[in-house]
Amino acid sequence: MAETTRLNGVEKAAVLLMTMGEQAAAQILKHMGPKEVQKIGIAMASLQNVSKESVTATMADFVNGLHNQTSLGVGSDEYIRSVLVNALGEEKAATMIDRILLGGNTKGLESLKWMDPRAVAELIRLEHPQIIAIVLSYLESDQAAAVLQEFPEKLRSDLVLRVATLNGVQPSAMQELNDILERQLKGGGSGLKSSSIGGVKCAANILNFVDGSVGNKVMDAMKDADADLCQSIQDLMFVFDDLVEVDNRGIQTLLREISSETLVLALKGAEDGIKQKILSNMSQRAAEMLREDLEARGPVKLSDVETAQKEIITIARRLADEGQIVLAGAGEQMV
């Protein structure tokens, strides 16, 4: 593997953990969520021939980052709330505050995030559709999309409509749902406070990760039920080709987080506009190598292309949440 400048953030984290030893790394992983553990685990498994210089440089980056941090206020709920609100604004910070500060009391629901989508679907299959919609709203968008696809086709559009029209959940209802899941999972948890889950944006995020053919059928069914709401959802959806609206600096930031293999697969099924956008934001040598890789790669499965594109969308959304890039949905324009 090349020098640390070629490592993305996840790979650097993997290198750092592998230099710490098993016990220290295990303690750190305990404080991460399921998606982070999975990503870092994959990166650790795929790291090969990392040079001594790369390890040294990664450690140096970590130490420099620590020097720029301060421990003052860490551990204070009010401090965390203030930082999140200042960084994200009241609306975006609300849900994240719930998950961070209240997460310790949500073992029933929180445990679902560690489960296979098929297992989650099986667990809630016999619940009322409104309960299923609440669970889908609580999960991460990509996991919720995978769970949604486990349900019968005729139920999917109803569930998405319920997610879109969900405007928060009463504390008593959340507590009851959490208790039910605790009993089913044989866990033990305490109280659960209200959470601002659901809504049109949540529904759009879930549909972004649903397979193309499934998503089209869901949207068609929803149009018959509520055309205006369906349009509102569609306006907020973000697809791979919408990356053409991201500015050049944002594309360059995004490219630093994407592996070459993922990029090649994603571009195999992309429009010419997004291909040119990507190539124009690479060095001449890197662009030539990418063109050669695209030409050399034979036919690929559509499912592999969609998976690669969804991975890039996930990274783009994370960078947008962190304020590093700006995204526009299908119904939005950049100004």
Quick tags:
single chain, 335 residues, mainly alpha, Annexin V, domain 1, 3 domains, 19 helices, 67% helix, disordered N terminus, disordered C terminus
Outline of this structure?
Helix 13 packs antiparallel against helix 14. By secondary structure, the protein is mostly helical.
User: Beta-strand level of the residues, as a percent range?
Assistant: under 5%
> What is the number of beta strands?
0
CATH homologous superfamily identity of the largest domain: Flagellar motor switch protein FliG, alpha-alpha superhelical domain
| Portion of residues within helices | 55-70%
Q: How does this structure look, described?
A:
The chain is mainly alpha-helical and 335 residues long. It folds into three domains: 64 residues, no CATH class; 135 residues, Annexin V, domain 1 (Orthogonal Bundle); 82 residues, Flagellar motor switch protein FliG, alpha-alpha superhelical domain (Annexin V, domain 1, Orthogonal Bundle), CATH 1.10.220.30. Helix content is 67%, strand content 0%. It has 19 helices and no strands. Helix 8 packs antiparallel against helix 9 and helix 8 packs across helix 10. The protein starts with 8 loop residues before the first helix and ends in a 14-residue tail after the last helix. The N terminus and C terminus are likely disordered.
